[in-house]
Amino acid sequence: MSAELPFHKKVGPMKLYAALIIAVAFTFSPAYAEESADLFGSPMVEESGQMTLDGVRIDFWGIHALAGDQQCWTMDEKPWPCGEHASTALKHYVSGKLVRCKIKETANKNKTFAQCFFDSDDKTHDIARYLVSNGWAMDNSEQSLGLYENDEQEARHKRRAIWTSRFQTAEDWRNGIDRYIKYEMEPEPDSEKSAEVTKIAPPTPVIVQPVIVVIKERDKKRHKSEKKDDLSSTATTEEVDSSIKNTDVYLKAREREMEDLAKKEENAKILQ
Q1: Cα separation, 111 vs 117, whole angstroms
Q2: How many Å apart are CA 224 and CA 37, to the nearest integer?
Q3: Integer angstrom CA distances of residue 216 from 61, 79, 118
């Protein structure tokens, strides 16, 4: 009686390898993803925190989204349609994507919470994380247990979307409750730079010598130098004294000339 061969020897190594490849391909195929997810298909966005997928209206699990018609107010009290902007951002983000959602919680027939993803560029993208990290939603720590807390902090630190404004929760907005989210707003980048500039010491003032004095001193030195060079070593004392007197007369005349020129320039400036 012959012993029975093991399975891998019966089918051969090549056939076993081919079967393994088929199994892996099937595991990561869209059909398998559809079966492993509770909901699968092309989404239709209702508003920033809600969409319909595979005929089921779902709310994103783990976040506080904005109402579709919600308004926010800038620090100078200018209203802007933050809910509409958030919905538009979500529509662009999931446009043309095949989305899969895992139902996490069902409050009632009309309230289904799900965590939703899509694959792109060899990466898996969490749709709720996109909304929080871009400032279109807040982390719901009661559901997520802080899953999106770091994303919210990043959005707040970088002043994205609602984190530049005064805003309410979607529930308070719908119920007309005049209550707002309390948080410490990060300073604007421009204001930080201007604050740094004000700390820099002002430049030291440069004292400019008047033009008249500069020219007078220059001409005085030059004229004296020229006269000294002209005097021969055999010149008498009287000749030297006479030369010095002539130099003083020249400098006084030159000084009066420059003062008259300066006055004319001042008058011309006044007339302009």
Answers
A1: 19
A2: 103
A3: 86, 68, 84
User: Going residue by residue through the chain (272 aa), what tens digit of pLDDT does each one get?
Assistant: 555 555 445 555 555 454 444 444 444 444 434 445 799 999 999 998 999 998 999 999 999 999 999 999 998 999 999 999 999 999 999 999 999 999 998 877 778 999 999 999 899 999 999 999 999 999 999 999 999 999 999 999 999 999 999 999 999 999 999 999 988 877 766 544 444 433 434 444 444 444 444 444 555 555 555 555 554 444 455 554 555 556 666 677 777 778 887 777 777 767 66
* Adjacent-strand bridge partners of 50: 47, 59
Non-local CB neighbours of 106 within 8 Å, separated by 6+ positions: 112, 113
Which residues pair with residue 73 across a beta bridge? 79, 166
Cα 11 to Cα 212: distance, rounded to the nearest angstrom: 110
Q: What CATH number does the domain located at 37-187 have?
A: 2.40.50.90
Grouping H, G, I as helix, E, B as strand and the rest as coil, residue 4 is coil
pTM: 0.58
Radius of gyration of the chain (CA): 43
* 225 C-beta neighbours (distance < 10 Å), count: 10
> CA 90, 96, 98 angle in degrees (round to 5)?
90
Helix (H, G, I), strand (E, B) or coil at 134: coil
Torsion angle (degrees, nearest 10) of CA 161, 166, 169, 170: -70
- H or E element that contains 113: strand 111-120
Q: Which residues pair with 165 in a beta bridge?
A: 74
